[in-house]
Amino acid sequence: MTLAGKHIIVTAGPTHEPIDPVRVIANRSSGKQGFAIAAAAANAGAKVTLVAGPVALETPVGLDRIDVETAEQMAEAVFGALPADAAVLVAAVADWRVEPSRTKLKKGSGPPQLKFVPTRDILTELGSSEQRPRLLIGFAAETEHVVEQAVAKRERKRADWIVANDVSGDVMGGHRNRVHLITSAGVEDWPEAPKEEVAQRLVSHIAEALG
Fold it and tell me: Is there a catalytic annotation at residue 43?
């Protein structure tokens, strides 16, 4: 298995969308799976650009790391890193953001009236980009109808593969993962394994696909 001469972009972790100077819209993504994939790709010889949201993880050896906070910053970093042979979008990007208040919102003022607007959809943008990587892989964390929703997501977002997992239980931030790989050929159900093993298996598939 080798990815020598290939450039792989990996996104990992959550994004934080500011509400005011002290509060954010966030999620429980730890970044561990994305970091494991980036490390495995680098170990396979790839040039890896890791775009990381706010996480407390050490940078794997042999890759370039770009730290970001918001979905907009992550999108800019991803597109700034192109061209690439493959993009693996593992990050749990916030779906919504608000126009942040310049001052701290006070509890005594009552519930804030927040106007939500969608964040940038990096996977969809890459899927229709003139610089689309040869292999475009998205992740789908779902709480119900996991495979069905991932199959629909692959087609809707013009991705080559979707890696889906069930997050209905207490799994966010853990050390193990059980995923389903959705491709044009169908669905592969992978057994539960440490995130490092999931990463190795995915990177093996990527190396095979890129030749």
Answer: no
